[in-house]
Hints:
Keywords: Methyltransferase, S-adenosyl-L-methionine, Transferase. This is SET domain-containing protein. Residues 410-430 are annotated as: Disordered. InterPro entries: Rubisco_LSMT_subst-bd_sf (IPR036464), Set10/Efm1_SET (IPR044432), SET_dom_sf (IPR046341), SETD3_SETD6_MTase (IPR050600). One of its GO terms (cellular component) is nucleus. By secondary structure, this protein is an alpha+beta fold. The protein folds into 4 domains: 5-86 and 245-292, Beta-clip-like, CATH 2.170.270; 98-239, no CATH class; 305-455, set domain protein methyltransferase, domain 2, CATH 3.90.1420; 460-619, no CATH class. The protein is built from 22 helices and 17 strands. The strands form 7 sheets. Strands 1-4-9-8 form a 4-stranded antiparallel β-sheet. A 3-stranded antiparallel β-sheet has the order 13-17-16, sandwiched between helices. The protein is elongated, with a radius of gyration of 34 Å.
Amino acid sequence: MTEPASKRLKLDAIAATHRLYSADKDLQLLAEWVIDNGGYFSDNLELYKDETNGYSVRVISYPENYSQRSDELGSLPLVSCPTSIIFSLANPKPSLPSIFLDSPSISDHAKSCFHLSQHILLEDKSPHWPYIKLLPSKFDTPLYFNAEEMVRLAGTNLGAGDVALRKSLWMEEWEMGVQALKEIGNLENIEKYTWDLYLRSATLYTSRSFPSQLVGITQNATAPSACDAQKHTESFPVLIPLVDILNHQPSTKIVWKPTPESFSLEALGHLPIGSQVFNNYGPKANEELLMGYGFVIPGSPVDSLAMKFTMLPRDPMVAAIWEQRESKKKWSNVFHLTKSSMTTDAKIGIYALENDWPEALVDLFRLLVINELELETLKDENSNKIPISTRNELAVALGLKQAMTQKLSTLRKYDSPSNQPPRNQKERSADIYRQGQQDIMVSKLEKLDNFITNYAPAKRLSSGRYLSDNERLKQILKDFPIPTGVDGEGDDEGIVEFELIEEGELVLLIAILREYFLRENGKDSSHQPKDFWDQFMLMLGKGTGMSFDESLEVDEQSKDNDNEEVSEIIADYCNMITSANDSTDLFNGHQLIGSHISWAWDIVKMKCINLDAKEAILTI
């Protein structure tokens, strides 16, 4: 509860027309300066400072007729700053030399930072001094982390280069700006425009500025000609005295009210006496909050993971289809992934991936993993078909899983420092940010696993399920190792032995040939699931290039001799395991040849997804 005014620290001199806005002398002078220039600060609020919140605002009373019923609440005016004292290049008095501000080689960001640096150096000679003297000189953003603190960010986007990149860009701006000022030569104290001062100014803008467009500040006739170049910028940062003291809370209901004369904040909802009054900067994730503001929000409901993805289809035909896809319009190099719900739903819809991942990213992956058969389908049908096929959709899920697994592995590789108790607020913020990133990745992987397990069950058959329905075949594969080849040259250390075909693919290859020969002889399949094989064989009869007879018509010159040799070896293997088990007629009396294997293996490659070496999924 707020102390009575009589017990607060008395100020040395307060004009009779002013009330006590704060027990802090500098905050009191700031409020008086804003109000003297036409601003407003509610009589129901006070400014205060403490070690936890820094400079803040809290409620000390209710206005007359103020209803505490949520269904009767209107807006409550909080604070207003006149446009005339909003700090930006739109109001640069005094200003840097016009030749500097007009220079096309100096970025607008650099001009803003040098302009703020100038007023910081002017001290009480600056007309904004009551505001500028309260601006912090130290921050908890990563550019202020030391080497030990930066270790807590290792493996994250910030630790992987984002911080270093921002520092490099800002330092380049500073160096170019100082050089330009030296060449102009009519500015005093150029040596005081140090890197530390520039970093401070740049961080002040990232941590407390408002975008000019959103607050209604525009370049107009009040800006001198030296800033004409700024008129071409869509939006630029502005500093709003007194208004920017309100801290951020994402759930806060607040109204921004810009007018040509002022910028105001109004609260919506009940504000208990003694509570801090917050602003709402928007749905900013912890990565953006830490990088720009130097704080994070534990358990933030709007936290996200920035995933940078720049790969595009290389095949000209696929690239052309991508250009025509509706989702291409939503494509971005950076996607922001939110935490997935942890529910495990066996009923997976056709848009399940889009419901949990950015639509454009999912659709791009569809084209990155497309095979020739699916590409032909898109060429012949609607080029915007979604999903393209069951196999393709599962391949997308596996591709996303691989990308997320790699990202999580990189993060966990550097987990050791974060297992130690944090020593300061910077490390506490880094740990919260780090854990939030990991939580998002884990939730994404869990959701993908659920998708891979449950997507389109009637249109797929796993090698594991086929073996469980055919125990004798399972035992045969255990008794007779899969044929192997060797790779490498030189001594024994350079030779690697590998299986010519993965077990999962071999099982499905055998399954396709068994079902094919059964139907060729007019027999029905005795193996489950019958409905799957009925539909699969029907698909083989319709699919271009899938029938066995068509496969034998392939031009001999187009055949790969190495592949033919491998196919013959696998055919011999299949014949061997059949003859070695007389009671088990794997292929309904047929002797396999290399062409049988090549045909079935091509189908597997077109319609199969490998989860790992032993588990493969055949799709309709």
